[in-house]
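Worked Example 4.2. Read the sequence first, then its structure tokens.
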Amino acid sequence: MKKLLPIYILIFVLISIEIKAQDSKIKSWDYNINIEFKDTTLYINLHLKAFKTENWTKNFFLFNRYIKIDKALLNNKPLNYIRSNDTLYFEHSNSDKINFFISYKIPCSLYESSKIIKIFGDSIFAYPALLDSNQVFCERYSKFYPVIYDNFTNYKVKITIPKTYEIYVEHKANEKILSKNNIISTYIFFDEDFRFFITKANIFQSEKIVQNKETYCKFYFLPKDKRLLSIKNNTPKYITDLNQIDSLYNVIANRSALAVKWYQTNLWYKNIDTLPFIETGIFGLAVNMRAFIIFDRSLMNMEAIDNYALSHEIGHFWIGYNVKYLSKGFYFLSESINEYINLLFYESWAGNQAYENAIKDKINLRFSNKPFFTVSFEQVLNQKNGDLNFELIYNKGVVFAYKFCKLIGKEKFLKIIRETYQKTDNYITLTDFENSIKKNGCLKEYLQLYEMKL
């Protein structure tokens, strides 16, 4: 996922496949999140019921510092708590039952959000919503709602939006109700992350469809009188001619269809009937949402296309959706590996020299504002959310994957990737990746990565 340009940065990743929820240390959940989008504000009520176990913890809620808590109850009494950055601390209850309720709101207007951001300008966390005047994007990784550390299980989310808006979520709604003024959608979710995208209805102007065998790539473009074509010597070049803009759309659509074909051929076949690409005005946002891809209009230019930006998100249909969150090596397995395989696709159409140059750029951090530095493989594996160095993941981590591929050969490397990531019955970990490496007789080469400084 690419959230900070010019390097495309996370967004994680994921396609619609059923995988088991991670083991929970709290049992008998009844977890409900109610969200209402009204007057450019998200109003959120969260209700959690559970039984404690021996190893439950009292500091188990992740929270964004930007969120002001309006009401908090524990077992129907006011909750006494202390906040420190993103963590909510509170005293143990004498009861072995947890009945937790909390309500808060997230302003989604540029004016109101900027005022709040100014207050918490020293926060290491992003504002919990990405937005422009007509669109809102939320994800748990920005901590717009609390989750229990390391514990995920089924929960219900109900979202209410005005009829003048549309909502895009990773899975189809389990129930959808149309009232006089609103659309009410209910989702039963089991992953650690619930992401949604709200946009004004009927704002997409252009549509482009490209068929690649069984897959239809459908692009929904925002209306725009001019498009950024390229940036030469720090000077942007725009086009306004409709034929030129349409030609740019064709390149974007055809290159994306080519990426789908390459992944189907070189990794494994996935049944994807229709793959929607939805353009957003939210700057820097590009994210794979399982059933569709959201991309920022700043990526709709030849430089971004030639730098394999959009195909990174396409790769997440194969790589990263089922990596165990918070486990060691999470970002290496979900992002670094995906970006390296994206470079293999890049090599297939740009040529070996362009591919090698891209690797050199990543070694030298050419797209980074930070100075060149060297790191160990262990440093890459230990990257965690909240203290994440993106250069390590999207540059150095990719080069470690490249070095491993050079040591064992591309055919064996892709075989290990297929054996690791094709699992659909559970979350994968670094141990699964290493077991596949051992199975293919490549442990000696893998251990060499720990001796390198890149």
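Now turn to a second chain, presented in exactly the same format:
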Amino acid sequence: MIDINFKGLSTEATIAKVLILVGLLLKLVGIIVIFGGLVPVTNVSMTLGIAPFTWVLAGALTAFGLLAIAGMIVLWKGLGKFKAKDYQGVAIYALISAFLPPIGAPELIGAVLLLISPELKRKK
């Protein structure tokens, strides 16, 4: 379960946590859109008579969707590290997830904010 407690966090870490949560929700919406558009796109291309292209398009959308699921799992695992107060781990997981499709600006900004937060400086 994700810990939504913001007590004891600096402003940067609080904003980072909110941005990472927003990034998680956007990845979920992206996955729904990718897999929701898979059937209509393949049906349209079958109707137009370009069946060989259909399999290429369906394979590309499926691969893109699987990468998006992987990015969401990585981000979820990173959010779990907030509970253990491993802020550097959260930032690394958020950076990895930010570069998996769909590209996520909120988690990238959140990771950078977390890397400059006082919590990380205190831990060193």
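Notes for the reader: The mean pLDDT is 85. The helical segments are 11-36, 38-47, 51-80, 87-98, 105-115, 118-123.
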